Amino acid sequence: MRPTHLLTLAALATATTPSTLTDLCTDTVAQAALPASEFIQGITIDPSSITTNIVTNSSVSSNDYPSATISYCNVTFAYSHDGIAGDQVLLEIWLPAPSAFQNRWLSTGGGGYAINSGSSSLPGGIIYGAASGMTDGGFGSFSKQADSALLLANGTLNYEALYMFAYKAHHELSTLGKAFTRNIYGLTSTEKLYAYYQGCSEGGREGWSQVQRYGDEWDGAVIGAPAFRWSFQQTQHLYSNIVEKTLNHYPSPCEFDLIVNETITACDPLDGKTDGVVARTDLCLLDYNITTLIGKPYTCAASSFGSPAQNGTLSSETIEVAQTILNGLHDSNGKRVYFSYQPSAAFDDAETQYNSTTGTWGLDIDQLGGEYIALLVNKNGTTLSSLDGVTYDTLKEWIISGMLEYYSTLQTSWPDLTPFHSAGGKVLHYHGDADYSIPTASSVRFWESVRSTMYPKESYNASAEALNDWYRLYTVPGAGHCAPNDAMPNGPWPQTNLAVMIEWVEKGVVPTTLNATVLQGENEGQNQQLCAWPLRPLWADDGETLECVYDQRSIDSWHYDLDAVPLPVY
Ligand SMILES: *[C@@H]1O[C@H](CO)[C@@H](O)[C@H](O)[C@H]1NC(C)=O
Ligand SMILES: *[C@@H]1O[C@H](CO)[C@@H](O)[C@H](O)[C@H]1NC(C)=O
Ligand SMILES: *[C@@H]1O[C@H](CO)[C@@H](O)[C@H](O)[C@H]1NC(C)=O
Ligand SMILES: *[C@@H]1O[C@H](CO)[C@@H](O)[C@H](O)[C@H]1NC(C)=O
Ligand SMILES: *[C@@H]1O[C@H](CO)[C@@H](O)[C@H](O)[C@H]1NC(C)=O
Ligand SMILES: *[C@@H]1O[C@H](CO)[C@@H](O)[C@H](O)[C@H]1NC(C)=O
Ligand SMILES: *[C@@H]1O[C@H](CO)[C@@H](O)[C@H](O)[C@H]1NC(C)=O
Ligand SMILES: *[C@@H]1O[C@H](CO)[C@@H](O)[C@H](O)[C@H]1NC(C)=O
Ligand SMILES: *[C@@H]1O[C@H](CO)[C@@H](O)[C@H](O)[C@H]1NC(C)=O
Ligand SMILES: *[C@@H]1O[C@H](CO)[C@@H](O)[C@H](O)[C@H]1NC(C)=O
Ligand SMILES: [Ca+2]
């Protein structure tokens, strides 16, 4: 009886594999393609929750994929975790027409406390013939972020939401999404479905959360500026505020802006080409000293946020604030806890607030930093209303206690990627050199941690080469946080990362340098190539040829001894 039944189903599946978007995009076809409920232990899919709709000729554009006009089927369905009353998780999966499908799956991630990017990331898969999915994490809807679900009551975290946000939801999205994709396009069990990931910032952390845990989930992950090493990353957002508080000096945004402008001007030529872009923030860190800016005049027009026109000269107090921020967090014994943004990055965390009553600038608690402490350390809200009594040592305590509390969930810094590597997985990791929200050195540190953990007996060059076979890191000259940077508009941006990854995975084309494009400014449209770590970019004398050079002094400048932390920090 059973074999016959299976045969019939298989025959039916082959016979009814839809051939057009219209055939594919019905509730009935989608329902029939849902994985069996016992597919993942503890999960029950709700077949009645299926929705489908066709979207035709939709124009899409983004920094993260080339502009295109796409057509797809939008499928959503819900599942629940057995044993949790009222639990519901939503998935949204976009399907290319059967004729456009290229045996690919793409998982997409979020940013901040969001676990998805709405409809902005999914087109990135559709243009390459990939069924593309996102999850709501079970937080209530696709537009509800994890922070709205993480606190059940003051003092009580929602641990299921925490684990979903940390890594569980993405594993379920990929597992269910891939099975659903195989079924709906009628792939046989021997046909390969290539699986990919693309995400930046929190989405970058979500990418690493899977690469660090699962060998068989994806063939290739495109990961930008990941918000990993969570307790360090989130707490360091408050460091600039504590510098201002400790030194009791609150520079205006105009003053910080001038420091950034002058740093760009001074460090631009260090990469061999004066093009408005600081491609060598490492040389800028080593060879440029902002104390030369004391006495420089600044002027800014009145802003729409209510601050008046500003002018003055940069004081030694302002330069001390900026330099202390650049030095990174040290404890009261002068030992290093963490590192900072690269010079030329904007001072976003340091932003001050204008008080029109007093006509002075004062403390403005960084939102993301404050939220981490309020939500996941204090567990009584999502905004921190005061930094009274908080010192450099307090930040260190928050970092270390958070490391312990969230090591197996949000920390996301496990450096042994053996299962992923053994399964043949590839990682393309990129990070803006002028990132103002996640220090670029954070990505370098993780690459180096993986290198030394997985190739402990090899020389530096041999281990770097071995790691570069499957996990490559590129810094993006002039780029800000997961985006190009208006302050250095001539800088390149790697817009075709998923295409590059597909070529690497499916055709073995190693991205020796990473394809990038100037997306704005006077050279808009120009192609540039990005160097893979540990090589650093240097323009040849002709100003046209980019060389990727090995520069020990620069490499060393990215390495920090976090001697205030009594544990390995990967
Ligand atoms: C989509 O664009 C194609 C090509 O331009 C056109 O033939 C088709 O009619 C369009 N479909 C709809 C629904 O507008
Ligand atoms: C996809 O379907 C969901 C659920 O019906 C809907 O909320 C969403 O707006 C749809 N998205 C698009 C792009 O059609
Ligand atoms: C937690 O405590 C704060 C301050 O007392 C209060 O405003 C807030 O409503 C409480 N939140 C919850 C979820 O009980
Ligand atoms: C910094 O440079 C930008 C142009 O990139 C300019 O708009 C801005 O006014 C400058 N800021 C200051 C404080 O001079
Ligand atoms: C920058 O120059 C000042 C004044 O010469 C000096 O005190 C300081 O140590 C220098 N800072 C760095 C980071 O080199
Ligand atoms: C500087 O600001 C003061 C008012 O604070 C104004 O009187 C003066 O004209 C400004 N100078 C310049 C050069 O903008
Ligand atoms: C501005 O300063 C006044 C006087 O010190 C104070 O009462 C008021 O709370 C401040 N406003 C803000 C928004 O901090
Ligand atoms: C939140 O918790 C912290 C740490 O327990 C406590 O210091 C603070 O007063 C609490 N805030 C509120 C608004 O209850
Ligand atoms: C490592 O390789 C670089 C070239 O990529 C070379 O310049 C350097 O000398 C090598 N280091 C050692 C220790 O062999
Ligand atoms: C590389 O980028 C250029 C634009 O700068 C683009 O035309 C080309 O298709 C890209 N290559 C890949 C593999 O996507
Ligand atoms: Ca330059």
TrEMBL record:
<dbReference type="GO" id="GO:0046872">
    <property type="term" value="F:metal ion binding"/>
</dbReference>
<keyword id="KW-0719">Serine esterase</keyword>
<comment type="similarity">
    <text>Belongs to the tannase family.</text>
</comment>
<keyword id="KW-0106">Calcium</keyword>
<dbReference type="GO" id="GO:0030600">
    <property type="term" value="F:feruloyl esterase activity"/>
</dbReference>
<dbReference type="InterPro" id="IPR011118">
    <property type="entry name" value="Tannase/feruloyl_esterase"/>
</dbReference>
<protein>
    <recommendedName>
        <fullName>Carboxylic ester hydrolase</fullName>
        <ecNumber>3.1.1.-</ecNumber>
    </recommendedName>
</protein>
<keyword id="KW-0479">Metal-binding</keyword>
<keyword id="KW-0378">Hydrolase</keyword>
<keyword id="KW-1015">Disulfide bond</keyword>
<feature type="signal peptide">
    <location>
        <begin position="1"/>
        <end position="22"/>
    </location>
</feature>
<dbReference type="Pfam" id="PF07519">
    <property type="entry name" value="Tannase"/>
</dbReference>
<keyword id="KW-0732">Signal</keyword>
<dbReference type="InterPro" id="IPR029058">
    <property type="entry name" value="AB_hydrolase_fold"/>
</dbReference>
